[in-house]
Amino acid sequence: MTETAPQGARPSLRRRLMATLLVPMLALLAVAGVVIYRTVLDFDHKEHDRALLDTARSVGALMDAQGRTGPLSEGVRYLLSYDIEGQSYFIVRSARHGVLGNTAEYPAAGPQPVAGGPPLLFDATVGEQPVRAVALRFHPRAEPEDTIDVTMAETLQGRERLAREVLSVILMLATLLSLGLLLLVWTGVALGLRSLRPLLEGLRQRERQSGPHLDPLTDADVPKEILPLTSTIDALFRRLRETRDVQEHFIADAAHQLRTPLAGLLLHVERARATQDPVEARAALEQIAQLSTRAARTSNQLLSLMRAQADGETHEADGPVDLAALAVEAVSRRVPDGLRAGVDLGYQGPADGAVVDGHAAALRDMLDNLIDNAMLYAGRGHSVTVSVGKVESGWMELAVEDDGPGVPGLFLHRLGERFFRVPGSPSGGSGLGLAIVRRIAERHHARLRFLQGLRGGLRVCVALPTHPGAA
């Protein structure tokens, strides 16, 4: 017994869509946040470095414009050490006059720039505090033979403060964007799933209606994304319609074919009950036996036709079948039936090696119906020949031919129709044997032909495709 999963344990399409959309979008948002954060910090570092460089160049330009290499004034010292965001350090050193000015603490000597060359930026420490420093070297105009080194540094508090501010802004924006994305995705998924409502409502209406409604679901309003689902359901409905049609046809055919022999059985049973004459009673029993045999044969043929119709759309050829060996076995099995019917039943062709694509049970059923039909309509004193041979490349032909009265050419095209019997045919037939043969041939994509035999009877030819792996 199948247990139904509780509602909470069922997978949710909405949750799957949300996860499928949100997880990549949030990951992309996180990557974008990291990239923006690093870009802003890099820009901030460059701006701070540019300001530090400008200050160092301004000090050098100021000293060079004054035309002296004496100690720095207190005003200049104050301006150089002032930093609104942290602490600044500097040292100005002359190769000839020594230190011209400095803060109490100053950065250790870093890379040595070239006089007149570009300033050099580097990371340094003042005490144990990390700083960003710049070094500049030039020749003063007052003493061209002298060199002055200007080294300036600033703490990183301003940069770190900006980094915190940028990070807080990015986190706030990321949170707002995440909530916005969540709302948008939720709304989009809800609107997208709303397109399924007409389909679900159509199914509910079918459920409320009486009787089976197996019309196709797919129409112009079905979104193409769920078209595979509706197409699969339509295919299932088509199978159900076919099964229902087969069952309805079977019921109608059974009622049509069994009504007469059953009515005859009742009639002869009453006849046997009513008579006291042993001869009359025996004749009634003979009629009952014949009608019972006819009803049994008709029932078997109806079941065979139902199987052929039900399997025709659901099965392709199942594999290699040795058609010659199958024919030899069928003829050998039916020889006693031929002797009782006074029909010479024989076989022509190879004993094996004629391998075709097919279903062995269905092909055996087809061959039995061909032999039954030939023996019934050929009649006592005639012969029936089963043959197997290759007719062309890739095709093997099974033929059943009799030398009986045959079928007029006017009716050949109607052979294979359900319940069709050639006018003037001997009694006992139901008109189902060749219909079964036609249905099985269609199932195997075979070529079925009804021809007038070379000896005056009927020749039925079934050409089947050979198996690809057969030699």
How many H/I helical runs? 9
Distance between the termini: 49 Å
Query: What proportion of the residues form beta strands (DSSP E)?
Result: 15-25%
Largest sheet data: 5 strands, antiparallel
Uncertain runs: 313-317
Q: Spell the H/E element sequence.
A: HHEEEEEHHHHEHEEHEEHEE
The number of strands is 12
Oligomer: single chain
- Spatial ordering of strands, largest sheet: 2-1-5-4-3
Overall geometry comes to rod-shaped
Helix content: 40-55%
Descriptive account of the structure:
- The protein is 52% helix and 17% strand.
- Strand 1 and strand 2 form a beta hairpin.
- The radius of gyration is 51 Å and the shape is rod-shaped.
- It starts with 12 loop residues before the first helix and ends in a 6-residue tail after the last strand.
- With 471 residues, it is α+β, with helices and mostly antiparallel strands.
Layout of strands and helices, then pairs:
Elements: H1 13-66, H2 74-81, E1 88-94, E2 98-102, E3 120-126, E4 129-138, E5 148-155, H3 157-194, H4 197-208, H5 227-274, H6 278-311, E6 319-322, H7 323-341, E7 344-348, E8 355-358, H8 360-378, E9 383-392, E10 395-402, H9 433-443, E11 447-452, E12 458-465
Parallel strand pairs: 7-9
Antiparallel strand pairs: 1-2, 1-5, 3-4, 4-5, 6-8, 9-10, 10-12, 11-12
